[in-house]
Amino acid sequence: MSRLSCLVLFWVAVLGGCSDGPPKYTITGAVTFEGSPIDDGTIIFRHMEGNGQTYSTRIEDGKYSVEAIAGPMRVEVRATREIPGEFDEPAPGVKVPKKEMHIPLIYNANSELTVDVTKDQGGVDFAL
């Protein structure tokens, strides 16, 4: 067997054994807080089994779309809003509006929200 043939066989074996992992499924939905869409935030899906993979995406105008593997997920929602009339000064002469986290911890750090991601998931809305 020639050196080139051995090299080709080696790469076929190595690359053939690689996979993209388990299939991912699209989850879409809406997120509201106290009846109003969350304008700008983040939704995080933390896998509750295996290695605890995390999938996150932005919430824009109350909507989100993310791909995740199947299984039970713990869901966290985070969003900030500007505090009227208050500013931070990250550098001399530079003022930026001060922001605060306005979603209670029960929906993020201490979240008990869960969803079971499946192949035919469809939409999952969260009314907080």
TrEMBL record:
<protein>
    <recommendedName>
        <fullName>Carboxypeptidase regulatory-like domain-containing protein</fullName>
    </recommendedName>
</protein>
